[in-house]
Design goal:
heterotrimer; A mainly alpha (172); B mainly alpha (671); C mainly alpha (101); A: 172 residues; mainly alpha; Four Helix Bundle (Hemerythrin (Met), subunit A); 2 domains; 7 helices; B: 671 residues; two-stranded antiparallel ribbon; 28 helices; elongated
Chain lengths: 172, 671, 101
């Protein structure tokens, strides 16, 4: 067993652990931080698979932007900070665990049977090629996605903007 | 869709063209009045002249169109047919279309001219009358229906036009339907015509079945070229068609509706008795003339017999009438007798020539009578008299019409009546010839009587009559010109243009046409006419009958018989209508009450019983219970199921994912 | 390196995300769980891309797109949560049952 594989398995283990923490912790901030760890470990996995550019995008976009957004969201919605037993919906816990467990077993069954013996050969960096493909063959979807992002930006601002009428009502 | 039918171009020696674009667009003659009628109905009331302007404009267009058709017809001769196929019944193509040949163009011209003048007259005559707009709708439709009839190249369209004319006449005769007499007159006209129509309909069916076509031109072609197909049924078909013609053209014994049709407003009478309706029968006979001539000459003898009976019988009744319009009505019947008898004797041109001249002078006489009636507010000649002083225009034109009808030269009636007499003489029908001469004498006599009682002597009525409005006298003057001059188009030996006009047809017309005046016939007719006028003048002027309104010639019992119209109406009532009314109706009623009603009541009772049983057992206990249960079941089920609708997204998602898992498991491990 | 451990890990991440969506009360936490699911998908894309050695690198490109879409989704999602919170003074999704019968 090579050192590379050991590192990979270890990463996967940590990934699972932090992901489980995201959904099980009773602390909102801890959940967010765990998501940061999950994403960072995913980026590590991507690096191990020699997809450096995607790993960087993941770090930049997710950890840099999305998580910050989440933290803002948590704070603005005044979700109870610190340990809070009320975070989970206890009635759903059993059913949720059952369903997600079943899905996990299904997926595992299919994936393990379907990809028996398949291996990954990691090559060197491919960032330059990726950039060329992205801006030549996939330039049209790329532009469309940027439009979607713009639309989401405007939509987010429109939705989250403080309504003047509501503000007045609050003041009264 | 539209095609020029060049089937028998080589048939006649006459040179003619297809009429060009003018003939091709002659369909507008037929369509225009119907469109106009629609407009009058819907927007007429809101127009300044209450829709009369639309009617007048339309009829003026038709007049102009018919004049232009007449013009090109005179200059180069037109004969063409156009067909529009609208479908088929079995082997028969149902085709409508329009025929533009000598006969139709002559009819277009007559209808257009007379209708235009009558319409102008009617705008003033009907002013302030009830249902003014509706009157013009019907009048326009009436003219349009007549155009449908005379433009018809197929028997089916003839039938449609025939019925349309009947319906419109019903509407117009019964214009003042609030009075029972008027509505019964309308009904009488309609039913009498309907009886005749059955003859026409059966005749058409026989002809169509035996020739395999509804096109008149093809039937005529077959009747002159293909003897086997038609020879067996020709006589029956000819007689049946003639029965149809009898109804519309008021031949004995189906003439009874026409005098009663005087109940309608006078313009209607003028239009109906001059240009439309009554000429339809003569037109049909003329249209089918080659068929009669070559296939059913025996039927022509019968046609002639009925014509002669009509001309004499109706003329005699006209003598005893006191109602001015009824005198003219019986005169019309009598003159139609002349036309039909002329067709019967094989004188195609003579009959149509008389139709042509008669249309103008009879329209003139009717409109003159209308003018008089408008002035004195009465139909009875006993309340008239001396009107020559107060109504000079009406008087002059009425005299012209009278003289034209009596047949004195150089007025129109002289030429046409002479031609009919000449053809009788030529055919060797001596008896009929003398009856026709007698008819001419009677005609002259009763018209003189009518003029004497109406215009000469002293006024016997009430109120102060006055000359009519210009709108009414102008048509009179115009028609007077026609009454004088319309006969000049066919003077034997001088100018016989009319003969060429009406014989310009796809099918060759074989007929007798005098090349010069038949001096015997001419002198007999003229003498008869002069004698009639002389006798009338003697009796009603010199004997002073006109002063008192008394008739000096009340020879019993002839007078009574005539006054009762040969008891023909009595006969109809006694032997046809009353038996139906009393015996058959009673029998039918009894049958109805005792058999049908009992049966129906029994069925009803059984059904009711059965219904009760079904209701109590099957319905209440079976179906209703089931329905109630299912509805309450749905209600409670819904009540429980709606709890699933919690509005909580997580539960929905849970159910959804549970479903996904279940289906995946099923697909993976079971299927 | 064999692919099955990575794929199973991705499936586990996906299942955990589902669990989080089903169990969490806080709308923000639900959004976090959705990110987990998207992340699992990303991992799958990358591992298949490496496995197939696709010359067009469609797996990586799709991953980039997914990340972008996820960012947009988070932006909109948080804005909606913010609106809901402002109107109802809570972020508990059990309270949002306007669609109830």
């Amino acid at each position: 067993m090579e050192i590379y594989e050991v590192v990979t398995y270890f990463t996967l283990l940590l990934l699972l652990f932090s992901a489980a923490r995201v959904v099980t912790t009773s602390n909102v901030i801890h959940a967010a931080i765990s998501l940061v760890f999950t994403l960072a470990l995913t980026a590590t996995l991507f690096l191990l698979l020699s997809t450096q550019f995607v790993a960087l995008v993941l770090v930049l976009v997710y950890i840099g932007a999305v998580i910050v957004l989440f933290l803002f969201g948590v704070m603005i919605t005044r979700a109870p900070l610190g340990k809070n037993a009320e975070l989970d919906n206890d009635k759903n816990k059993l059913i949720g665990a059952t369903i997600s467990g079943a899905i996990f077993l299904l997926f595992s069954y299919i994936l393990i049977n379907g990809f028996d013996g398949e291996i990954v050969i990691t090559s060197g960096s491919s960032t330059e090629l990726l950039g060329e493909i992205l801006l030549s063959r996939f330039v049209f979807p790329f532009e469309i996605v940027s439009f979607v992002l713009l639309a989401a930006l405007i939509g987010g601002i429109t939705l989250a903007r403080k309504d003047e009428a509501l503000v007045d009502e609050d003041q009264i | 869709m539209v095609k020029f039918d060049a089937n028998f171009l080589a048939e006649t020696e006459l040179v003619y063209t297809d009429g060009g674009i003018l003939a091709e667009f002659s369909w507008s003659l037929v369509v225009l009045p119907f469109v106009a009628a629609l407009f009058i109905t819907f927007i007429g009331k809101y127009l300044p002249y209450k829709g009369a302007e639309i009617a007048l404009g339309t009829i003026a267009l038709i007049f102009i169109y018919s004049v232009s058709l007449m013009f090109i017809h005179i200059t180069e001769g037109v004969a063409s047919e156009f067909f529009v196929n609208v479908g088929s019944i079995g082997q028969f193509d149902i085709e409508f279309g329009w025929v533009v040949d000598g006969l139709s163009i002559m009819m277009y011209f007559v209808v257009g001219t007379v209708a235009l003048l009558v319409f102008i007259y009617a705008t003033n005559y009907m002013e302030g009358e009830i249902r003014y707009t509706f009157f013009f709708t019907s009048l326009t439709l009436f003219a349009g229906s007549m155009l449908v009839l005379v433009s018809s190249p197929t028997l089916i369209q003839i039938l449609i036009g025939w019925e349309l004319v009947g319906v419109c006449s019903y509407l117009l005769i019964g214009h003042y339907w609030e009075k029972k007499d008027n509505s019964s007159a309308a009904m009488k006209a309609f039913i009498t015509n309907k009886i005749a129509d059955i003859g026409l309909m059966i005749g058409i069916i026989i002809l169509a079945l035996n020739t395999g076509t509804l096109r008149i031109s093809e039937i005529l072609y077959q009747s002159t070229h293909d003897y086997e197909k038609l020879s067996k049924v020709a006589f029956a078909a000819a007689i049946l068609l003639f029965i149809g013609a009898m109804g519309k053209s008021a031949q004995f014994p189906l003439h009874v509706w026409l005098p009663d049709a005087m109940a309608g407003p006078t313009p209607v009478s003028a239009l109906m008795h001059a240009a439309t309706m009554v000429t339809a029968g003569v037109y049909l006979l003329a249209r089918m003339f080659p068929f009669y001539k070559s296939m059913a000459p025996e039927a022509l003898d019968i046609v002639m017999l009925f014509g002669v009976i009509t001309l004499l019988g109706a003329g005699l009744i006209a003598i005893v009438q006191d109602d001015l319009k009824k005198v003219l009505a019986y005169s019309t019947v009598s003159q139609l007798g002349y036309m039909v008898a002329a067709i019967g004797s094989g004188a195609y041109t003579a009959a149509l020539f008389h139709l042509w001249t008669h249309a103008f002078f009879k329209a003139l006489l009717f409109l003159g009578a209308g003018s008089v009636i408008h002035a004195v507010h009465s139909n009875s000649m006993l309340e008239m008299g001396g009107l020559r002083k107060v109504m000079p225009k009406t008087f002059t034109t009425f005299i012209i019409g009278t003289v034209a009808l009596a047949g004195l030269p150089p007025f129109a009636g002289f030429f046409s009546k002479d031609e009919i007499l000449a053809s009788f003489n030529h055919e060797g029908e001596t008896t009929f010839f003398f009856i026709a001469v007698l008819g001419a004498f009677i005609t002259a006599f009763y018209m003189t009587r009518a003029v004497s009682l109406t215009f000469l002597g002293e006024y016997r009525g009430h109120g102060h009559p006055h000359e009519s409005h210009n709108m009414m006298t102008t048509p009179l003057l115009t028609l007077a010109v026609f009454a004088i001059a319309s006969g000049w188009v066919n003077i034997p030996g001088v100018y016989t243009g009319f003969t060429d006009w009406v014989t310009t047809r796809k099918t060759k017309i074989v007929e007798y046409h005098p090349e010069s005046f038949d001096l015997f016939a001419l002198s007999s007719g003229l003498i008869a006419g002069l004698l009639g006028i002389g006798l009338g003048y003697y009796l009603y002027q010199l004997q002073g009958s006109a002063e008192t309104g008394d008739d000096k010639i009340k020879i019993q019992p002839v007078w009574t018989v005539l006054e009762n119209k040969y008891y023909l109406d009595h006969f109809y009532f006694r032997f046809i209508i009353d038996p139906i009314k009393i015996n058959i109706s009673k029998a039918v009623d009894k049958f109805n009450t005792n058999v049908i009603d009992r049966f129906i009541n029994g069925v009803g009772q059984i059904a009711s019983l059965l219904g009760g049983v079904v209701y109590n057992n099957l319905d209440q206990n079976g179906i209703d219970r089931f329905l109630n249960m299912s509805s309450s079941g749905t209600d409670s089920f819904g009540g429980r199921v709606k709890l699933l609708q919690t509005g909580r997204t997580q539960q929905y998602l849970m159910l959804f994912l549970g479903g996904v898992v279940t289906i995946s498991l099923l697909i993976l491990f079971i299927i | 390196m064999i692919v099955q451990p990575v794929l199973v890990t991705a499936a586990a991440l996906f299942s955990l995300g589902i669990y989080g969506i089903l169990v969490r009360r806080n709308a923000v936490m639900v959004l976090l769980s959705i990110e987990l699911i998207l992340n699992a998908v990303n991992i799958n894309f990358i591992i298949f891309d490496s496995m197939l050695a696709d010359s067009l690198m469609q797996g990586q490109i799709f991953t980039i797109f997914i990340i972008t879409i996820a960012a947009a989704e988070v932006g909109i999602g948080l804005a909606i949560v913010l609106m809901l919170f402002r109107n109802r003074q809570t972020a508990n999704i059990n309270e949002f049952d306007l669609m109830k019968w």
